[in-house]
Structures are given as C-alpha cells and as structure tokens.
Amino acid sequence: MSGQGNTEQSEKVEVLLNAGLNAPPTVQKEIIQTLASLIYDEKEAMEAITKIALSASSIDVKMEAIDTLASYGLEAIPYIVKITKAGPDSLYGYGAEAIKDIRKRHAKWKRCPNCGALMPLNARFCGMCGHRFPDAEGMGR
Ligand SMILES: [Zn+2]
Q1: What does the DSSP 8-state code read for residue 22?
Q2: Do residues 50 and 44 touch, judged by C-beta distance below 8 A?
Q3: 119 Cα–ligand 1 center, Å
Q4: Of 101, 94, 2, nearest in space to 53 by CA
Q5: Torsion sign, CA atoms 101, 63, 26, 76
Q6: I need a labelling partner for 131 at 20 to 30 A (CA). Which of 18, 30, 53, 104 fits?
Q7: Ligand 1 centroid distance, CA of 63 (Å)
Q8: CA 114/CA 72 separation, integer angstroms
Q9: How close is the Cα of 112 to the center of ligand 1, in Å?
Q10: Angle 72-17-31 (CA atoms, 0-180°, nearest 5)?
Q11: How many angstroms is it from 110 CA to the middle of ligand 1?
C-alpha cells in the first residue's frame, strides 16, 4: 500500500539509514524517531529502525529502538526479538519486558492448551472444555 512513485521519500529514508549506521548514539536516536514519523509503511519503518538498532553499539540506541518499535504493537515483536537477541546480554531484560508489555496491551485472546479454543485473555477457565488456565494473564496489576 506504500505509494509508488514516492521516490523522494525512499531516497530520504535511504540517506537517513546510511547516515544512521555510522552516527554517534544521540544522532542515531534522532534518526530512529525521524524514520518512525517519515515512513508510513509500518513494516518498512520497523525494518529501518531495526537496521539502525542492530548497527548501533550503544545500548541506549537499542533501547530507544525497542521503545519506538513497541508503539507499532504486536507486529513489532519479531523485530524486538531480533534486536534483543543481538545483545548485549544486558539488553535481554529490557527487550523481554517490552514484549510482555505489548502482549498485555494488545492481546485479547489466548488459546486453550487443551482443546485449542480461543478464550478471552482474562478467562480463568476454557469455556469449551473447562480447562483451568494456570494464570489469568492480562488481569492488570
Ligand atoms: Zn479448552
């Protein structure tokens, strides 16, 4: 759905990406923000942000990228996983927390492990087979 013939925008993105790969952390953070607001196609935006994050050596930049990606919702999880896996190890907790948060905010359904029926996230029992869910996730704290 991204507009064809929008070469001016993709050139801009290209330039930003190239600049971002070798930039100092503060500039990389700004570029992440700019990319997020510049690119309408969500997948393209997430890919670009991930690229910057993976090239960054600063954990600050990676965290910024994770935060920005998180605003895209569930679709962002694979990208956050990629950044988190690339390390450093100290990033792991942050990435895991971000993913948990997204799931909490966006997931409305869970699948019964016993019969496969979809049940509301806060259900305590499966309405189809009566299976008891181990923890009522998403109930809020
Ligand atoms: Zn069930």
Answers
A1: T
A2: no
A3: 8
A4: 94
A5: negative
A6: 104
A7: 38
A8: 31
A9: 5
A10: 60
A11: 10
* Positive/negative CA dihedral, 68, 49, 96, 60: negative
Task: Name 27's Cβ contacts closer than 8 Å, sequence gap at least 6.
Answer: 19, 20
| CA of 103 relative to ligand 1 center, distance in Å | 21
With contact defined as beta carbons under 8 Å apart, do 35 and 77 qualify? no
Distance from Cα 132 to the centre of ligand 1, integer Å: 8
Distance 98 CA to ligand 1 centre (A): 29
User: Which amino acid is present at 59?
Assistant: I
Residue found by looking up tokens 């016993």 in the block: 114
Nearest to 74 by CA among 100, 92, 49: 100
Instruction: Note down pLDDT in tens along the chain; length 141 residues.
Output: 444 557 888 899 999 999 998 899 999 999 999 999 999 899 999 999 999 999 999 999 999 999 999 999 989 999 999 999 998 999 999 999 999 999 888 878 888 999 999 888 889 999 999 999 876 544 444
**Separation of CA 50 and ligand 1 centre (Å):** 37
